[in-house]
Amino acid sequence: MMKADGTKQLKLGNLEATPPAYRVATLNKEKFIQVLDDVDALNNSSSLKNKIIVLKHIITYPKNDREGILNIDANGDTISLRKDVLISELNQILEARTLERAKYYVRRLKNGVQKIKTSKVNDINLLRWKEYDDIITDSLWIMGKRDTSGAHLGWYWGNFIPQIPHQMMVRYTKKEDWVLDPFAGSGTTLIECKRLGRNGIGIELNEEVVVKAKALIEKEQNRFNIFSDIIAGDSTEIDFKEILKERSIDKVQLLVMHPPYHDIIKFSKSPKDLSRTPSVEKFLEVFGRVVDKTYPILEKGRYLAVVIGDKYSKGEWIPLGFYVMAEILKRGYKLKSIIVKNFEETRAKRNRKELWRYRALVGGFYVFKHEYILLFRKK
Ligand SMILES: C[S@@+](CC[C@H](N)C(=O)[O-])C[C@H]1O[C@@H](n2cnc3c(N)ncnc32)[C@H](O)[C@@H]1O
């Protein structure tokens, strides 16, 4: 039910998030590596492939395991691999045209099991990169349904879909890193922080929204024992350094910003609200202040993600996204990507679709169907 302040009535029930549905093969690491070593030592393509066929059979039908690959000792070292990815790696070995190529794939699989290779900014094991097919690497995002699991109730008018902070955090943070969201709204970023084991701080101007967001963030399980809080305040003025100092840190590793798209949605009556700025120029100036204030607390080489859309006013398309990008580029950031993301269809929008199509045909413009995720790296 919609309330007068634009938010929906909340029901705080059981907010357990659903785990991903991949099937995982848990293997006896030592035995598995031994088998791969044995395969690697073979000097004949057909015996190598026969061994791989046996291996594939064991993974698919665990009861047929005579090698002890699936025998998990109480104190033994185990490795969990995504079953579908493991099978596809084995298939790749089977399809290799030469013995050398097959051995190359065998060694690559062994490396992925034995070693971890990550970059400085995330925990993605690059030796097992195929397992991360839920990470988007294309610049066009056509998102289906919003993730409404757990505490992500989607009650706040003007929120973003949890998949946005989720994607940003898996690519640009490590476990226990700190994430700051200066326009926290309903706390989507902070809920996602808790799920992914990142510490999170949010600033939000509207105190009523802060109270509701706090309750929801607390409802989300804290499996990784991380810190997360949403603070009522004005991000153009708040002392970010002090806020970090209170938590015994001096830098964050990711900034997520989802400011108002100027006055498209008026979030509150406060003159400090960016959605109440009297012109686009003033909006950019005030937004620039938040960029200035947060720049010093972002660790060098780390990322700023800004979610923003354009607006339409007096018969003219106002490229707010590009203006915002230009403001940020003035301030020592390097542009890493412009992601174009579709708007998901809400019921309200669906009902107005026909009307907008008619208006577009009459007015000679296109109906907004996208927004931007602008990605910057601090030099
Ligand atoms: C687009 S919404 C963010 C929504 C959020 N990503 C979510 O999923 O709920 C922008 C938010 O910025 C807040 N805001 C506007 N001016 C602000 C300011 N000066 N300081 C802090 N927050 C502000 C608004 O109240 C609004 O909640």
Task: Note down, in words, how this protein is organized.
By secondary structure, this protein is an alpha/beta fold. The chain has eleven helices and twelve strands. It has helices at 29-41, 45-60, 83-95, 99-114, 163-172, 188-196, 207-219, 240-246, 280-294, 320-329, 347-363, and strands spanning 24-28, 78-82, 140-141, 178-181, 199-204, 228-232, 252-257, 298-308, 311-313, 316-318, 333-342, 370-378. Helix 7 links the parallel strand 5 and strand 6 (228-232). Helix 2 (45-60) packs antiparallel against helix 3 (83-95). S-adenosylmethionine binds at residues 156, 158-160, 182-183, 185-186, 188, 203-206, 209, 234-236, 258-260, 267-268, 272-275.
Task: Indicate the topology.
Layout: E1 24-28, H1 29-41, H2 45-60, E2 78-82, H3 83-95, H4 99-114, E3 140-141, H5 163-172, E4 178-181, H6 188-196, E5 199-204, H7 207-219, E6 228-232, H8 240-246, E7 252-257, H9 280-294, E8 298-308, E9 311-313, E10 316-318, H10 320-329, E11 333-342, H11 347-363, E12 370-378
Parallel strand pairs: 3-11, 4-5, 4-7, 5-6, 7-8
Antiparallel strand pairs: 1-2, 8-12, 9-10, 11-12
The structure holds S-adenosylmethionine.
General form: elongated
Which molecules other than protein and nucleic acid are bound?
S-adenosylmethionine
Strand order of the largest sheet: 3-11-12-8-7-4-5-6
Sheet-strand content, in percent, reads 15-25%
Largest sheet: 8 strands, mixed
N-to-C order of helices and strands? EHHEHHEHEHEHEHEHEEEHEHE
Rg of Cα set: 25 Å
Mean pLDDT score, rounded?
A: 90
| Total DSSP E strands | 12
Query: Termini, distance in Å?
Result: 46 Å
The helix count comes to 11
Question: Uncertain regions: pLDDT < 50 for 5+ in a row?
Answer: 1-16
Structural class: alpha/beta
- Considering DSSP H and I runs of 4 or more, what fraction of the residues is helical? 25-40%
